[in-house]
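With this grant's support, we have settled on a layout for protein records. One resulting record is reproduced below.
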Amino acid sequence: MRADAAGPVVLHAFRGGEWRTSLDTAALPGPRGAPYGLALVPEIVVHADRRRWETARGGLPPLTGRRELLLRAVELFDRGTVTVGGLGAQGPEDFRAALWETAGVPGPLVDRWCGMLRDTLLKRGEAAADDALALVALPGNTFTCLDSVLDQAERSAAVWVRPSRREPVSAARLVAALLAAGWPPLRIGLYPGEQHTLHGLVKRTDRQIVYGGTGLAASVRRSPALTLHGPGRGCALVPGAMPVDEAVAWLLPLVAGDSGRFCGNVRTILCADGTDSADGTAGTAGTDGADDADGADGTGGTGGADSAAGAAGADGGAGSGGARCAALASALAVALDAVSADPTGPDWPLTVFRDPEAAHRALRSVHDRMRPGDRLLTRRPAVTEVDGAPCVLPRLVLLDRAAGHPLLGHEVPFPFAAVLTATPDTVRAATADSLFVYRPAK
């Protein structure tokens, strides 16, 4: 990151067609105590901006050719040089360096996620635009949710973006890329803010797409115009007859892929107990994939305490099914222990935590939920240091019993899963709250 002039780097908001700083700022993490900041928009300003939008919207000319502008913006986002308020000219390597410095996201993941944004836009059908002022409130775990910004930009009169304070750089870059592609400045906004400001943004926009964890889901005012993307609680169903090596090869990317940052990552692995348990799932199930096609958007909260299987009541380790499950879990743990912490690793690159306390808090949330009889199967030390920051390595826990276990569906911002033997009743209970249920391809 770099500033336009000497002094602290403060990432600006974008309001009323201009990049603007603010008297209210929040600190962003950075290497060696670098003073990075984020300009915050108070709720009173949000209210005033909505009134100005009502005045300005009638004079805006129709916006045609939106898809072409969006495709150009995504290309600039990935590989172009754009001007970001407070940061100045930002090339693709500057962008990747900024994400690594402030959010701990390595370059290979940035490349992958940029490709996902482009592919999703290309696959989505074009939508007719309406007169709504839309809001997209983003999570901090992955920038692939910027797809919702692109979607709302195509279908709305204007879209205001509320970035996560944990990772606002990607949202600011997308706004800059849209502007560079020719998007009308009054039709896009960037509104960083305190948590309570979100409620004001929801109140003063016409349509809202909000990402977040369990706590946010409980706090946001519900309305027919609001779409809330909460925890995904990904779940994988392993048939009893599936060979261990095949099961490990199938499960490894579901657990470790994207550094465990996506809501579609698997958090619970259910091993068939020898009966036809995989046929007893609630709802519909995907084939070699998740039930919800939006599962790769990274919407899940980090560290929510809800149990996804509070009603599950099966013993996790009895009989031959328990022995098969233990063998699978042990082999998967070996594979997870082999995942490299090298941020340039080609297979399953891991993120680091620029806020060390957040790393230890997330790790404690797993250990504190373990019960007597549970076994931590991954053997490496939980945390290693990469570039002066903690990297939490993959964790795998074999559960002794399923009944009301708080680790079922538990989401953290690193690769983690709980494994247990499951009867049909356990499967039905565990999958009832899961948005993403995976089965191996037949």
Notes: The longest helix spans residues 319-337. The radius of gyration is 22 Å. The longest strand covers residues 266-272. DSSP finds twelve helices and 20 strands in the chain.
